[in-house]
Amino acid sequence: MDLEEGKPIELSDKSLFDKYLKDYYPEISELTFTNLFIWKEYYNFKFIEQNSHIFVFSDEIYNKGKKPMNGSKDCIFFLPPIGPTPEKEIIKMFQFIKHLEFHRIPNKIINKLQENDLFISSNLSYIEDRDNWDYVYETNALINLPGNKYRQKRRWLNKFIEQNDFEFKIISEAMVEKVRQLQLDWCDVSECQSNEDLSQEQIAIDYAFKNYNELEIKGGSLFVNGKCIAYTLGEMLNDNTIVIHIEKAHAKYEGSYQAINNLFLNEYFKDIMYVNREQDLGIPGLRRAKEAYKPIKMIEKSIIYRRI
Fold first, then answer.
1. What pLDDT, in 10s, does the model give residues 160-187?
2. N or C, which end of the chain is more exposed by having fewer CB within 10 Å?
3. Fold designation for 3-132+302-306
């Protein structure tokens, strides 16, 4: 593979990615066209279509302070190949490129790799990447919040409903600027400009809003007194799971996070079995928040690298 042939991900590539992702449904949250497109500036993603697979990679991510397992500044960052036999393509790539790593590799690919003798003979190994494991929940549970384990969540939701004259609205292109204003306000309060991760997220969110219709994502919002106070964006990940990409709410309105999550799922996805709410990135507060919603499983991911 000649990486020089790699192309930046553009909106015009959506139909190609959608075809592959429909034929080879992913289980990890990173593999939707929306996620790849809106985060392309941070990762400097490029892609190549070859051997009936799409390969998404970055040759610049390790220049941003991230360190590869083998310590090489020339290391190439790859996501799982999208296609029929990603495990075989991963091994091939290690045979042709000296310094590379595959990230966000789910267990089903790890298991197949371990069955291949070339995995061991090529001096390959893997390490669990806990900070990037996805949290998966039952949709019905997040809508109905049943039983004692969701008691506090029900209290926050009911408090919001009782204390606010609110309106849930489906996000249309005409509403995007009003919703985007909440994001800008949220960023001011959270001091995004002094936090690199939040600054990069803001860029990704801007891409999502600017290309809202073309990306074909679903959006829901909450308005109180004509002002947007919460919003969320999501889409189908595979045939039985949706993925929530973004969820923000105004801290002034207690229970607003519980409300936007509940109403959005009930509006769009109540007949879908599972909700993937992405990873916690190792942030303690975010981990506690995601664990509090009682995931029924985690999508475990690993990094594949060559032992030195």
1. 999 999 999 999 988 999 999 899 888 8
2. C
3. Aminopeptidase (3.40.630)
